[in-house]
Amino acid sequence: MQTPAVAARSTDASLAIARALANVEKRQDVGGSWRGDYGGPMFLLPMFVALAYSSKRPIPEPRRARIITYLYRAQRADGSIGLHAEATTGSMFTTSLVYVALRMLGENKDDDRLARMRTWIARNGSPLGAASWGKFVLCTLGLYDWRGIHPTPPESWLLPYSAPFHPGRLWCHCRQVYLPMAWLYGTRSTMREDDLVRQLRDELYCGQWHRVEWSREKDTVSEVDDYRPLTRAFRSVSRVLSRYENRPIKRLRARALAECLRHIRYEDRVTNDIDIGPVNAVLNTVVHSFRGAEGADDFERGWTKLQDYLWDDERGATKMQGYNSSQLWDTTFAVQAILATRTRAYDHVLQRAHQFIRDNQILEDVPDAGAHYRHASRGGWPFSTRAHGWPITDCTAEGFKCAIALQSRFKAEIPADLLRESVSLMLSWQNPDGGWATYERTRAGAWMEALNPSQVFGDIMIDYSHVECTSACVQALSEARSRFPELADKIERAIDRGVAFIRQRQRADGSWEGAWAVCFTYGTWFAIHGLMAAGVTPRDPAIDRACAFLASKQRADGAWSEHGDTCKRRIWTEGERGHVVQTSWAMLALMRAEYKDSEILRRGASFLTRRQEADGSWAREPLVGVFNRTCLVDYDNYRHVFPMWALAEWERSR
Ligand code: LAN
Question: Angle between the 92-104 and 132-141 helix axes, to the nearest 10 degrees?
Answer without folding.
Answer: 20
